[in-house]
Amino acid sequence: MARGFHVDVPSLQGIQNIDLWKRAINSALQLRGLTLYIEKGVPEPDGAHEKAQWEQDRAFINGILLKSIVDEIDVTGSMKASGWLPSEKDPKKTYDLIVKCVVFLNKSDMSYLLHDFTHMDRKNFYSLRSYMAKAHYLKERLRLAGYGLGESQGVAFVLWGLKNAHPDHHAGWIQKFDDGSLTWAALMTDLQDLSEMEPQYPRRRGPSASTGGM
């Protein structure tokens, strides 16, 4: 029998919601008695009627899977690079490859994010505020990627990039860091106070409309 296609499965957003996505896929298939198709795979049956239902079930599951990754360009690109084709009819192969590619991409993302975090340098930023914003961004991205960044580790990364730009303050921060009293929040508060003492440069503006008149 034909199976209704409306299934409430969230769009995959990489590692951020992979667990929710897997639970939603499993629930949708469990309601229809189809979980074996992605858990173990279902071999082609012998009877004509059974084969027709088997093909319909596989197409139904593939439809759910493909619809859920249509906006995840990095995942689909990685899948195609692995030799996968959108015409693949076995939903288990598609499902397994989706999960594999998400994990692979997440590890790649974490490598880049960690590299950026450990190589931050205040001199490469327009202002201390922009340096702080980048630190917050990288810390949050690593959290979303599933990397268990300890507080002291994050503080150490930020301090490393401040050594040359703020040597006097850096010495005091290091002393607090060594005795365990410098938290992320405390460091960010100090940096915020310090940033307010930085000279504020006016933004560049385009040519005045009043210049060069007739």
How do the helices and strands line up, and which of them pair or pack?
Elements: H1 18-30, H2 36-39, H3 48-68, H4 73-81, H5 91-118, H6 128-144, H7 151-160, H8 167-178, H9 184-195
Helix pairs in contact: 4-5, 5-6, 7-8
Number of helices: 9
Strand portion: under 5%
Distance between the termini: 79 Å
Total domain units:
2
Rounded radius of gyration (Å): 26 Å
Rounded average pLDDT: 85
Low-confidence stretches: 202-214
Shape: elongated
Structural class computed from helices and strand pairing? mainly alpha
Give the tally of β-strands. Answer: 0
Oligomer: single chain
- Element-by-element helix/strand order: HHHHHHHHH
Helix content: 55-70%
Largest sheet: none
Structure description:
This protein has helices at 18-30, 36-39, 48-68, 73-81, 91-118, 128-144, 151-160, 167-178, 184-195. The protein is an all-alpha fold. The protein folds into two domains: 18-105, no CATH class; 119-195. The longest helix has 28 residues, at 91-118.
Explain briefly what this protein structure is.
The protein has 214 residues and is mostly helical. The protein has helices at residues 18-30, 36-39, 48-68, 73-81, 91-118, 128-144, 151-160, 167-178, 184-195. The protein is elongated and about 80 Å long.
